Amino acid sequence: MSDSFITKRRAKRDLLKPRTAEDAEWMELSNRGDLVGIRHLRVRQLKRKRKLSKAERQFLAEFEIDQKKIQRDPDAVWQEGFDLAHKGIRLLNMILYEKRVQGVQDMKDEADGAAYNAMTSLWGLAVNLREDFVRYAEDGSPVAAHFIFSQGKELATAFSRLAIAYPENFREFAERSLTMPSLRARNAAFTCDADAIIEAIHLAERHHASNLHDNRSRIGALCHQFIAQIVDLVEACRLEAKQKNHTDSEWWDFPELKGNARTWWKLELKELVDREFEKMKKYPQRNPALWQELDKVTDRGTDSAKRAAFQKYCYNKLEQIAGKPASPA
Questions:
Q1: Three-state SS string across 200-247, please?
Q2: Which of 235, 240, 226 is nearest to 258 (CA)?
Q3: One domain, residues 199 and 222
């Protein structure tokens, strides 16, 4: 492994270490995707500065205008926000409508930039809204919880139809994905079209852990899903750096997964596991099922005992996914 690679990883770790209470607050807000909270934190920081740049003065002025409008007439601000959002979404959809009329179907960047940008912009808006509502639900909002359930139900229904109708459009992503969470009713035999969907989209067939069997314990299953999601993300970053020849990327020299569980753990996953534990410790509602299982396996032990158990189960899952190192010839 090159010295430059190790240097990049150390630099990344240094950036992730909070030096002040505000650093820690920023990291927590960033991890939760709370962009409004980050904006408020930035305002507090700027108000303490003696000399502001032109851009910083403009930022503060815009914030104070928005805040005064909200305090004076929140209903009017709501209407203004709704009108702006509605108009923007309508324009993006009009681009896609016109392109479809013209026979543009693929929507790829090289095929038609406007259509591709409109589609990805709508996708970005949907992702941001989804993350906002997840955060509101984690904070205990019943309205947000209802939204997540209803939207999850709609997406699951659409996926069940479209995975059968257009399996080729899902297959590229599905083959590399280990996780596709599903719900079961009290009747365990009720699986609807699960077998047909798996057959159509080849779920997990090209994933590193495609041959794993069901876990023997609930905590094993929960840690398995958590680690698999991280593996999917890290592997995507590693492959993108290779495919696009990004030699300056921190992922360029990152080793392949097979046989390298220990290296992946030291370089990336242990830190992510520890960070997830800290989030669960502060917000148990983030993943109550996993937190309850950690309580059980440590006999309601200390936080350090729970952290050790979490690390152990996660590392074991990583070893299963990565496989053993190749034996020397």
A1: HHCCCCCCCCCCCCCCCCHHHHHHHHHHHHHHHHHHHHHHHHHHCCCC
A2: 235
A3: no
User: What are the tokens at 5?
Assistant: 């690679």
**What does the alpha-carbon distance between residue 290 and residue 307 come to, in Å, rounded to a whole number?**
12
d(Cα 260, Cα 234) in Å, to the nearest integer?
A: 13
Mean pLDDT by 10 residues, the chain (329 residues): 56 64 86 88 93 94 95 94 94 90 67 82 92 90 93 88 90 79 67 78 75 73 88 88 88 90 93 92 86 92 94 93 70
Q: Are 164 and 201 in contact (CB under 8 A)?
A: no
Is the entire prediction scored with pTM above 0.70? no
How many structural domains compose the chain?
3
- DSSP letter assigned to residue 287: S
Residues 6+ apart with CB under 8 A from 203: 174, 175, 177, 180, 197
Residues 223 and 162 in one domain: no
Q: Which residue has the tokens 């805040």?
A: 67
| Containing structural domain, residue 201 | 142-182+190-207
